[in-house]
Amino acid sequence: MNADRLLALYEKVAEAPDAVPRLRRFVLDLAVRGKLVPQEAGDEPASELLKRIAAEKARLVKAGEIRKPKALPPLDDEPFDLPSNWRWVRIREVTSDRGQRVADSDFTYIDVTAINKEAGIVAEPNVLTKDEAPSRARKIAAKDDVLYSCVRPYLLNVAILDQDFDPAPIASTAFAVLNGHGLVLPRYLWIALRSPFMVECVEENQRGQAYPAINDADFAVLPFPLPPLAEQRRIVVKVEELMALLDRLEAARTAREATRDRLTAASLARLTAPDADPGAEPGKVGTGFPSGSATNKDSFPAKARFALATLPALTTRPDQIKPLRKTILDLAVRGKLVEQDPADDRQNQSALRPDKHAESYDRRAFEERADKFDLPSNWTVEPLSRLSERIVDCLHTTPKWTEQGVLCIKTNQVRAGILDLSAPTFVSEETYKIRIERLEPQADDILYIREGGVLGVGCRIPPDTRLCMGQRLMLIRANASVAPVFLELCLNSPWIADFAAEKTTGGAAPRVNMSLVRGYPIPLPPLAEQHRIVAKVDALVALCDRLEAALTTTDTTRAHLLEALLHEALDPTAEAVTEAAE
Question: Cα(395)–Cα(402) distance, rounded to whole angstroms?
Answer without folding.
Answer: 18
